[in-house]
């Protein structure tokens, strides 16, 4: 039996992972802003589900909940940083508050969760840390820029963080799902449209994501996340979904080609 700590368990991947773990007999420390949304799972699984209210943008509260979970539950084998949300809008359309809130929830909270968990994981001799970054950490859609800024930031942070904590027996994996059939995209907020951008076909708007594009099964994504946490040598990154694989592959291929095209110019700045 394993014990997990998971943020963002009200719906989507977080709830699915929580439910699957409980159904197979594991224990979960689940956090979310409205704990009542897990009352059904609590009634079914009792003490194996430890629930706390948490807004991940409240860093002091986040640290307190992490400390409390390790103190009360003892060893926690896996920490899954899953909380977050997207917002539609061009850079100009977004308000200052929207930018601050998205970065706080999607970027800063993940970094603080990792920092809060490390002393406990190190003290117990290791563990797993999984961060959901999504395909949005490797690709970018115009009209979704602040979400991508947060997810690309997470990718950079955890690429550096992983070798820092590897000597402590802590393995890190960034999980990169594509578009899944969860409430995330359909319920994502949108900034007020500016008329100057109305005729730009490149910009992603909520109406540009039909249900048939949400191709991944959230239950299968949740099962894959659990499998990743149990691998002896987990990857640093793992795309999930055919769209995530294809989109990330195309983006990386294009970026490599552009890098190679600029090779001669890059070398002109060397000494000598």
UniProtKB/TrEMBL annotation:
NCBIfam families: PRK06482.1 (NF005065). It comes from the Bacteria. The keyword Oxidoreductase applies. InterPro entries: NAD(P)-bd_dom_sf, SDR_fam, SDR_oxidoreductase. SUPFAM superfamilies: NAD(P)-binding Rossmann-fold domains. Keywords: Oxidoreductase. It holds the Pfam family adh_short. This is SDR family oxidoreductase. Belongs to the short-chain dehydrogenases/reductases (SDR) family.
């Amino acid at each position: 039996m394993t014990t997990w700590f998971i943020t963002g368990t009200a719906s989507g991947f977080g709830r699915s992972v929580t439910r699957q773990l409980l159904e197979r007999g594991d224990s979960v420390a689940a956090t979310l802003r409205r704990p009542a949304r897990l009352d059904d799972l609590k009634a079914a699984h009792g003490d194996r589900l430890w629930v706390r209210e948490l807004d991940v943008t409240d860093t002091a509260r986040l640290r307190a909940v992490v400390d409390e979970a390790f103190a009360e539950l003892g060893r926690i084998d896996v920490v899954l940083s899953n909380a977050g949300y997207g917002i539609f809008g061009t850079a100009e359309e977004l308000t200052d508050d929207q930018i601050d809130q998205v970065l706080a929830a999607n970027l800063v909270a993940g970094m603080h969760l990792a920092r809060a968990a490390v002393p406990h994981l190190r003290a117990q001799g290791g563990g797993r840390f999984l961060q959901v970054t999504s395909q949005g950490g490797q690709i970018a859609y115009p009209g979704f820029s602040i979400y991508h800024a947060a997810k690309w930031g997470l990718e950079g942070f955890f690429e550096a963080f992983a070798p820092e904590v590897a000597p402590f027996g802590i393995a890190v994996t960034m999980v990169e799902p594509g578009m899944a059939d969860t409430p995330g995209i359909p319920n994502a907020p949108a900034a007020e449209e500016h008329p100057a951008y109305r005729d730009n076909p490149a910009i992603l708007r909520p109406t540009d994501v039909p249900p048939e594009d949400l191709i991944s099964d959230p239950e299968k994504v949740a099962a894959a996340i659990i499998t990743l946490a149990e691998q002896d040598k987990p990857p640093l990154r793992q795309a999930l979904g055919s769209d995530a694989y294809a989109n990330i592959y195309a983006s990386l291929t294009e970026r490599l080609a552009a890098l190679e095209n600029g090779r001669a110019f890059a070398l002109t700045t060397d000494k000598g």
